[in-house]
Amino acid sequence: MEEIISSITIKSESKIVLLVMDGVGGLPQEPGGKTELESAYTPHLDRLAQRGICGLTDPLAPGITPGSGPAHLALFGYDPFNYYIGRGVLEALGIGMELTPIDIAARANYATVDEQGIIVDRRAGRISTERNIELCNLLQQKISRIEDINIIIKPGKEHRFVVVFRGEGLGGGVTETDPQKEGKKPLQAKAVDTDSEKTAAIVNRFIEIAGEILKDSKPANMILMRGISQSPNIPPMQQIYKLNPAAIATYPMYKGLARLVGMKILPIKGETIEDEFIALEEHFSDYDFFFVHIKKTDSSGEDGSFEKKIKAIEEVDRLIPRIEKLNPDVFVVTGDHSTPCLLKSHSWHPNPLLLYSRTCLPDKVNSFGERECNQGGLGRIRAMELMPLILAHAQKIIKFGA
Amino acid sequence: MEEIISSITIKSESKIVLLVMDGVGGLPQEPGGKTELESAYTPHLDRLAQRGICGLTDPLAPGITPGSGPAHLALFGYDPFNYYIGRGVLEALGIGMELTPIDIAARANYATVDEQGIIVDRRAGRISTERNIELCNLLQQKISRIEDINIIIKPGKEHRFVVVFRGEGLGGGVTETDPQKEGKKPLQAKAVDTDSEKTAAIVNRFIEIAGEILKDSKPANMILMRGISQSPNIPPMQQIYKLNPAAIATYPMYKGLARLVGMKILPIKGETIEDEFIALEEHFSDYDFFFVHIKKTDSSGEDGSFEKKIKAIEEVDRLIPRIEKLNPDVFVVTGDHSTPCLLKSHSWHPNPLLLYSRTCLPDKVNSFGERECNQGGLGRIRAMELMPLILAHAQKIIKFGA
After folding, report:
1. Taking a C-beta distance cutoff of 8 angstroms, is the pair B362, B51 a contact?
2. ipTM of the complex
3. Sequence-ordered list of residues with C-beta below 8 angstroms from that of B134, at least 6 positions apart, any chain
4. Which helix (H) or strand (E) holds A223?
5. Which residue from A279, A278, A272, A323 is spatially nearest to A294, judged by alpha carbons?
6. Interface with chain B: mutation pick from A38, A56, A64, highest number of B CBs within 10 Å
7. Is B399 in CB contact (< 8 Å) with chain A?
8. Model pTM?
């Protein structure tokens, strides 16, 4: 499908705004009640729903709850079952590291081992972030390169950090060294395919040297590695869609995901939703595709705070006219997955979807909500089917076949 | 997809009831009329439809009418285009034979041949079932083994019986020996691949010996074999879904299909629908997934009896509160395919679908019927997409990807 889309996309002047309210879909708290979105006062989104066309998207497939990685890949039109984003890669993106396609990224933990090398604490007593930074600096100073591979170390929070192995000939198929329980020795990293033998050797050598450097730093006298994975080689949106895309997001992970598909990350002055809208206004003439990511809808859902989620949705709604004023050719509002306060987690429930453009055929949907969208003219599609639809309404897709 | 699902399913305490009203979907007898399901008085199913979420499933794909085998495989979440259930295997399951993954099963017919070995009656004058049993006993007594292959013979009705070849090294790619018309000699079974050469040799040897044994039993002095096929090697539900599944069905074929995917077949005291519900109640604490199969809705449809089909549906409806009382975490009511009385046969029309659980978002559907379900929140999905959805609502699936 990607190849087909790529063969019929064209460059044009039209502009697209894809506003993703992370985890916006929800559930009633009580049987018979309304969802967060249905409860929110959203006159602007409702007006757009009346003038536009609505529907639902399954993030991946019915019943499958996605992580943020696959959910966003799907929204960007990439088959999330084809491009796997490993834990190490996501963690690296999450702390703002920039990855290249040859990189291998791993989540690492400081841990405590006894004299026999047996793990007595997999989290090194959750050392402070400050101590973590000190130790990462020490490791980085002493290990910047193994053979022809560059090593990049970046601290996260508490005992967590990320190691990136950068160089030619590294495959991503390597097992983890964390035995997942205490009372055991760390495992050796093993290659699961011949392409990854060099990776396994470098990882093991790295851990050996690190163990040597840390030997007097108890409780953080060993490291464990998990989610060792390769940055997926994703053809950029420039190539597939002929777009000049930009991303507006406050959280590093979403910036990282956007960067993976070729988006330029726009600077934002602050951390508020309004700051994101200001960034959109300032850069609106420079790009033709804008991914605007709102985190608050998801984080309030994860907290289980129905009221906070409603407020986040209403905050976005109040700012909607600012986007309308920019007059994008296609304006889409949706989620990447649902995060019902009832479940306090991502869920499999479909995302409400609203598309507004001059070429849409308005349906009978009256307001922007899960159940209203269920009656919408776009029906129920998979999230990865959305991008071609957006491009079509932006007149950026030509006829397939004669 | 199966691998993906298998990688994200987890064991949990929650319980699922999948009530399959075989062939429940239908059509109006007269233009402007109601379907069987729409005509039936179903207050309990209607109440569930109001509190739950509804939709439609295409058994396989739009326009494709399924046999019972693929229809049930799809309901159980297996791609029916990947797993082929041959006629011989289905026939064996249908008369209650238990198959192992190494078995080859064939439908066999008694036939009449003349002195030259030319077939003069492909059905041996439809000999009585009693005579069939006698002859099958005779054959079984005299041929229990050829080389290292065990032979298991079981009579069906009239001139029909089933032969199972059990042993190592048998492939399922063997042509049939029935030339499909009279005036010809029986064909030799031929292997269509190298894996099936041993099967062809054993089948031909079996027919040769059987012909010898039957030579004085005119009109049943020869046998013909069709649908020679291997039991499909389906990964069981225990493995893919981590379920402990049980089936409640009165007809052998459905028990056989359930057994193919690893379900335990529960004993039922009688033959009525209520007996099936009693079995569910008695075993409810022992399993976490229950497939309850209702045959009457289909058989009355095949008979073309609109009134009888309505009665069957109403009989099920009256018993619905017994399932509600058990309080399963997910309760699903649907069909495997439609059987409109108008057509007196299976059809391609989508199945009405009702799902009730604490985590469903109730839609505006007011009653359980084909056209009401068409407005439902689950939209129109393929039957094989249903299992992941059920497992999600039962909280038996974890997030895909990070």
Report:
1. yes
2. 0.88
3. none
4. strand A222-230
5. A272
6. A64
7. yes
8. 0.89
